[in-house]
Design brief:
The complex is a heterodimer of chains A (336) and B (255). With 336 residues, chain A is α/β, with parallel strands linked by helices. Helices cover 48% and strands 17% of the residues of chain A. A six-stranded parallel β-sheet of chain A has the order 7-6-5-8-9-10. In chain A, strands 2-3-1-4 form a four-stranded antiparallel β-sheet, with helices on both faces. In chain A, a hairpin with a 2-residue loop joins β2 and β3. The longest helix of chain A is centred in the C-terminal third of the chain and has 31 residues. With 255 residues, chain B is mainly alpha-helical. Chain B has two domains: 114 residues; 131 residues. In chain B, α4 packs across α5, α5 packs antiparallel against α9 and α8 packs antiparallel against α9. The chains are: A alpha/beta (336), B mainly alpha (255). At the A-B interface, α7 and α12 of A face α5, α7 and α9 of B.
Chain lengths: 336, 255
């Protein structure tokens, strides 16, 4: 019996190819049963996320099973044979190593992301419930989950924010702790504001105020983020109560100046305020950042911090790979 | 024997502080600092119990005992406040202050080698001494929280987000909340201490000490009043808390 893997991911196939082979999460178990019947494999687990579709199989005749699976996939998707060039194959320990890389987030588009761990667990659970796993895949997946957890706890692969939105949320957490008591104001209803506001909302930010020169657009974004629209000539008054301001208007000049904040400092009782300026040209006068309780970050700083976060994760890859290799070498598993 | 105990306690706090510092420099959380500080606290308790038995009163009869009591009070508030607010890094900041106080107490001439029972003890005097030193423990920890806030504030302002300090320091707002609570606790204890001081029998030589105590009490009251009524930026509040604590230490060292 041999463990093998056939799949494609964001590194080997563009989205228009990946989407043809994608399997909805509700059908992973059923698909595993179909693959077992059509390919002749003894055991099957099907993993499908937005970045990958992979088939982990156990069979005494791996070459024949892989050929049958590939032909079956191309046939089911009515795809040309040339699409097969997007597939990769892994055998035995190499297949387990690949699985460990996937659950550890090393094979993800966003290096070190944690969501994939849950997605693979869900795929394995679906296969388990469909009865398409046995000794080889059960042992291989359990081992991969254990190694994946070890990689995440013993290395720093998931530390630090890697996108502008996440950096902003991480900083907000460092300033305010729990965001349940924090209120957010969005100045200018751009796309980046929406993403950042949604990130803050998902972390529990209490309320969101949206202001925009076009009030209709403010109402639209406020509805989308579960917030409240504020008329553009009234935003200074809202500044008295909020803890976080996200600015991304299209104005060619500074919208928030030092005097705007100085005017509300007493009313705010000098509470900390986090200003996120993601507009180009900038909306917030850098002078505002010299006020004691103000923490001002512009788009360049946030992007630089995100890149540093990505760089730190890249530096962890070697350590993660060593850990995975060491753990696999120390394992005695069937099919490897 | 008691000097050895104080030395051991100082050593435990030193190890706790240094191990925590090394962990933070490696970018990890200082998990063992709390355990080291708890051990230091236990030894401090044994030391103070022995001195208290020898004095047949609260062990605050010489400068060494006062400093040791102050270090104990600071550690007590750290153990009470630190874990509750999950600000374990506070141990890394508290340990050096404990080490300094106890090292000073261990200097020759600071602590009597053969403590004798305190003659003519008075309950107002004991209340004044004990609550005042407890108050300074809370105010010292408020100053520690202030230093932590200033470090975090600097890192946030300068966008230095890679350091171990930044990653392991508690959020700024939580630090300020802890600092304010400690200031209030210190203020309440200090008020009891000052009130007891006014009640206790005293001669003319105690008047400068009483004036100094009232001056320190008024300064802390003014800080809390300004914070409550007008509001004050975290950076200024932290600086004032640290400055007031250093000032009060300086005042009592010379008055």
């Amino acid at each position: 019996m041999e463990l093998v893997c056939l799949g494609l991911n964001h590194q080997t196939a563009p989205v228009e190819v990946r989407e043809r082979f994608a399997v909805p999460s509700s059908r992973l178990g059923e698909q595993a049963r179909i693959v077992r019947e059509t390919s002749g494999a003894t055991e099957v687990v099907v993993i499908s996320t937005c970045n990958r579709t992979e088939f982990f199989l156990a069979s005494p005749e791996p070459a024949a099973v892989l050929a049958a699976l590939e032909a079956g996939l191309l046939n089911a998707c009515r795809a040309d044979a040339e699409l097969a060039s997007h597939f990769y194959r892994h055998h035995r320990a190499e297949a387990l190593h690949h699985l460990c890389r996937v659950v550890s987030g090393l094979d993800s588009m966003m290096l070190g992301e944690t969501e994939v761990f849950g997605q693979v667990k869900q795929a394995y659970q679906a296969a388990l419930e469909s009865g398409t796993t046995s000794a080889v895949l059960n042992r291989a997946f359990q081992r991969a989950f254990a190694i994946g957890k070890k990689v995440r706890t013993e290395t720093r692969i998931q530390e630090g924010a890697t996108s502008v939105g996440n950096v902003a949320v991480e900083l907000a957490g460092k300033i305010f702790g729990h965001l349940e008591d924090s209120e957010v104001m969005i100045l200018g209803a751009g796309e980046m504001s929406r993403i950042t506001a949604q990130n803050l909302r998902s972390r529990g930010a209490r309320s969101i105020f949206v202001t925009n020169r076009s009030f209709e657009r403010a109402v639209e974004l406020a509805t989308e983020t579960g917030g409240l629209a504020v008329k553009f000539d009234e935003w200074q008054r809202t500044l008295e109560r909020v803890d976080i301001v996200i600015a991304s208007t299209g104005a060619p000049h500074f919208v928030l100046r030092r005097e705007d904040l100085e005017a509300v400092r007493r009313a705010r009782k000098f509470r900390p305020v986090f200003l996120i300026d993601i507009a180009v040209p900038r909306d917030i006068d850098p002078e505002v950042g010299t006020i004691d309780e103000v923490y001002l970050y512009d788009i360049d700083t946030l992007e630089q911090l995100a890149e540093e976060g990505r760089g730190r994760r890249r530096h962890q890859i070697e350590q993660c790979e060593l850990l995975i290799t060491r753990e696999i070498d120390a394992s005695t598993l069937p099919g490897i | 024997m008691d000097r050895w105990l104080l030395g051991l306690s100082t050593l435990l706090a030193l190890v706790g502080g240094l191990s925590g510092l090394l962990q933070v420099r490696r970018g990890k959380r200082s998990r063992w600092t709390l355990a080291w500080m708890t051990s230091a606290f236990a030894v401090q308790l044994v030391f103070l119990t022995l001195r208290g038995q020898a004095r047949e009163a609260c062990p605050l009869a010489d400068l060494g005992e006062i400093l040791a009591f102050l270090a104990w009070s600071l550690t007590l508030f750290y153990l009470l406040v630190g874990p509750a607010y999950r600000i374990s890094l506070m141990g890394v900041f508290t340990a050096p202050v404990v080490v300094v106080f106890q090292s000073l107490a261990l200097l020759p001439g600071m602590m009597l080698a053969d403590p004798q029972p305190v003659a003519g003890g008075n309950p107002w005097h004991e209340t004044h001494s004990a609550t005042s030193v407890l108050a300074y423990g809370a105010l010292a920890l408020a100053a520690v929280a202030g230093v932590m806030f200033l470090v975090l504030d600097h890192e946030l302002k300068e966008h230095h987000l890679k350091s171990g300090w930044f990653r392991h320091l508690p959020p700024a707002r939580e630090l300020l909340t802890s600092l304010q609570r400690l200031l209030w606790i210190g203020m309440i204890l200090l008020s009891i201490g000052v009130a007891a001081g006014l009640k206790m029998p005293r001669d003319a030589s105690a008047t400068p000490h009483l004036i100094a105590a009232l001056f320190v009490w008024s300064a802390y009251l003014a800080l809390l009043a300004v914070h409550k009524v007008r509001g004050i930026a975290g950076r200024l509040l932290s600086k004032c808390t640290v400055a007031l604590f250093l000032l009060s230490l300086g005042v009592f060292a010379f008055v």
